[in-house]
Write a structure and sequence with these properties.
Elements lengths: L2 E7 L4 H15 L3 E7 L7 H16 L7 E7 L10 E7 L7 H4 L7 E4 L2 H8 L5 E3 L15 E9 L6 H9 L7 E5 L15 E5 L5 H10 E6 L8 H8 L3 E5 L4 H4 L6 E3 L1 E7 L2 E6 L1 H12 L3 H33 L1
Parallel strand pairs: 1-2, 1-3, 3-4, 4-5, 5-6, 7-8, 7-10, 8-9, 10-11, 11-12
Antiparallel strand pairs: 13-14
Helix pairs in contact: 7-10
GO molecular function: glycosyltransferase activity
Protein name: Glycosyltransferase family 4 protein
Pfam family, one: Glycos_transf_1
Length: about 325
């Protein structure tokens, strides 16, 4: 099997999560994986790549490793100094974080491996070689957790999930079921209005992952009103639990959630961030969507949740084969 080099900024958040998932998937396919964690911007530090090349050469001289990796895979930001360490190179972008500097170097890659169809179309339109691999997310389902007909919004530390506008809408509707919001202190507004009776807004860091898993499984509805996504882990994780997801009706969010497996909230484009459009949910559409969800029959709730879970399982299995096909084509 191949020697594969993963190159990415280990940011302790989403990118670190992607590294772990991709590492596991490649190892499951039988490949040997080497991970190089780099600074977010490494263009001024080529000595790091030179040192890595020297270590690799020394291992090759002693018969402990290849002279060059068969394939290098770079995530999110381009680190050009590491490209010579592999015979071929691929890039997995998150379009919303792909800077102008990154875009100048895209033609140095043998392929762009895309997580979403909108990303594939974006890069294909530039004449770049693309493979749609999708991605995968952790299975967060826990058996035996009692699920209530309440709503959950995992804002975390993101500023791109429509959190403040969602809170404003919920405050206007004291008749709605409870919305539980978990938000990091770094992004919460300090002078926010008092919480409504049906609004449980927790501003805290939660280190215990099982606490998060219980929350994900205890709520029938997850509100995921992303302005943009590179993939959408918190959407897919909600679907893995069999929850009904309310998300923005724009790509790539509506690639994950379709009307047969969730609820879509109309939105309008409100700008761009690097190579991604930004989408702002329509407040009247959200109100109608929540009203529909709150009045949903048990049968409809179960049908949508089961369909979400089935899509999750299908996507997980399909990712392995799509990744295999892309790697085999490159090698």
């Amino acid at each position: 099997m191949a020697s594969i080099h993963l190159i990415a900024w280990n940011n302790g958040r989403g990118l670190s999560h992607d590294i772990r998932l991709l590492d596991a998937a490649l190892r499951d396919l039988g490949h040997t994986v080497t991970i190089t964690a780099v600074p977010r911007r490494s263009r001024g530090l080529p000595w790091r790549a030179w040192a890595a090349a020297l270590r690799m050469h020394a291992r090759w001289l002693t018969g402990r490793g290849p002279r060059r990796h068969d394939l290098g895979i770079t995530l999110e930001h381009v680190h050009t100094a590491y490209l010579p360490l592999a015979r071929r190179n691929a890039f997995i972008p998150n379009p919303e974080w792909l800077s102008r500097r990154d875009r100048r170097h895209l033609r140095r890659f043998d392929a762009i491996l895309c997580k979403t169809a909108i990303a594939r179309d974006t890069f294909a339109a530039q004449g770049l070689p693309v493979h749609l691999i999708g991605f995968q997310s952790i299975d967060c389902r826990r058996e035996g957790v009692v699920r209530d007909r309440t709503f959950l919004h995992l804002a975390g530390a993101s500023r791109m999930k429509g959190t403040e506008r969602l809170l404003d809408v919920w405050r206007r509707h004291p008749e709605w079921p409870t919305l539980h919001v978990l938000q990091a202190p770094s992004t919460a507004i300090p002078d926010r209005p008092a919480a409504a009776a049906n609004l449980d807004h927790r501003v805290t860091y939660v280190d215990d992952i099982e606490t998060i898993r219980r929350l994900q499984n205890a709520h029938a509805f997850h509100v995921c009103l992303s302005e943009a996504e590179g993939w959408g882990h918190y959407i897919v994780e909600a679907m893995s639990c069999g929850a009904v997801v309310l998300t923005t009706d724009a790509a790539p969010m509506n690639e994950l959630v379709r009307p047969d497996r969730g609820l879509l909230v109309a939105a309008h484009e409100c700008g761009t961030l690097n190579l991604s459009a930004l989408w702002r949910f329509d407040e009247a559409a959200l109100e109608a969507c929540v009203e529909h969800a709150a009045g949903m029959s048990d049968d409809e709730l179960r049908r949508l949740g089961d369909a979400a879970r089935a899509w999750y399982a299908s996507n997980q299995a399909g990712f392995t084969e799509r990744l295999r096909g892309a790697v085999d084509a490159l090698l």
